[in-house]
Amino acid sequence: MAQGYLGFDNDTEMKVIGQDYFDYLASRSFFQEFQKDEDENIINCKVHDIVHDFAQYLSKNEYFTVEINEGSKELVINTSNEKARHLMLTLKHGATFPISICSIKSLRSLLIDCKGFMDLVTNDVLPNLFGELTCLRALDISLGFPGANLITTIPTEVKKLIHLKYLNLSGHDMEKLLETLCELYNLQTLDISRCREIKELPQRMGKLINLRHLINHDTFLLSYMPKGIEKLTCLQTLSKFIENSSSSDGGKACSTLACLKDLKHLRGRLEIRGLGNVTNVSEVKRMQILSSKKSLFDLMLMFDKDGEGERKKDDDELLLEALQPHPNLEKLDICHHRGSTFHSDWIMSLTGLRELRLSCYRNCIYLSPLGKLPSLESLTIAGMSVKNLVTGIESDGAFSSSTSVILFPKLKVLEFWHNYEWEEWDYGNTILPCLASLSINYCRKLRALPDGLFQGAKNLQHLEIYESDLLEERYRKGTGEDWQKITHIPNIKFTGDW
Predict the structure, then answer these.
(1) pLDDT tens per residue across span 235-248
(2) Pairing, β 413-417 against β 430-431
(3) Is 340-498 a domain of CATH 1.25.40?
(4) Does the predicted model carry a pTM greater than 0.70?
(5) Which of 191, 373, 382, 439 shows the greatest Cβ crowding within 10 Å of its Cβ?
(6) b vs e for 437-473, b when ≥16 Cβ sit within 10 Å of the residue's Cβ?
């Protein structure tokens, strides 16, 4: 996309065009050895050695690779390389950056792969790099591992890269990005993920009107979004949005969740933090911020709060109701909710929801009957205050059915974490036909697994019990009074097995 190979079609997103090209080549066996993520998306592949060699032969005057080892002599650029368009530079442990690279004025792509843990690309290299290679369309100087303090600041020379469309700075220790970065009006992708020291984004980000992907996950010190981000109406990827209307940042912050309203093309995953700072719930409900985003499939809602003062439980319950997403949602993660109940009509309407995680619900004593979600494959319950849990999954109630009932018809993975008050599990006559994995961790008051579990979940293949003393004592091999009840499960792990 950065090189312009996908063309431009007002009616079709370039990412979709690129996916079509890839799928076509894959169907013709051009690619092989696919590696997929948990959602079956292809994240890695290879080409056959013969195809690779042929491609290198055809592009020998446009593309080359360089590997620099410790003690290597300064790279000499010869006539065959001086007009190259694309360069992959690999720096091994202890190597120094070959400054002669900056003489290849025609470079369109520069991908730097750092294999060591030393300062291989330092701050003093960047002014030359940015100042000389002004034809770059794609620049990747990301760091694939933690623990190395490489680039800590971006020099003002970055504004000379006016043709740049793809910039990957992930993994470095920058505290902020200079305002001059906002002069890159052609920029389509900015990746600052895993920049753990970054505290703020440029105030003039609204000038990056062509930005399609702002990848900012794992930026733990980032505390607000800058004003003007609502102008980035081409955004398709925004990994994390931070609500901080109550911050004392001198008016720098984008004030409310309203900034998300005009970002109509967001797709994939969105993490929203700072929901505990929301002061006007009725305004959020009126704008229907998330319900129109039909390409948003993965949503994380964090009800954390900055500053002092306790938030009312009712506020969180009303806000959750106001944040109704589009029914296409497939993954939902809700954390730090202060409500005493987890119940929302829109959650029960998510018929395509495959994964649900509820964590740090310190006040929660009642859960909705989640067993009615027809597509749910993975469920995690963590940090709840419930004492009795019914396989439904309701809480603090009694299971009244006298006949067998199928719940969670597609549930494969069920996990419980840090439910310190949980004492009883009322299973009833439930059938969980697809349950394959059950994990119970840090649930120290849970006295026993329900007998009905072993009849109702006949496909259970994995059982993990960690730091849950009463359960471990009861089911430990050879000494536990109920060890025989779980011997049919092929894979069993206790605390000492890790």
Answers:
(1) 999 999 998 765 55
(2) unpaired
(3) no
(4) yes
(5) 373
(6) bbbbbebeebebbbebbeebbeebeebbbbbbeebbe
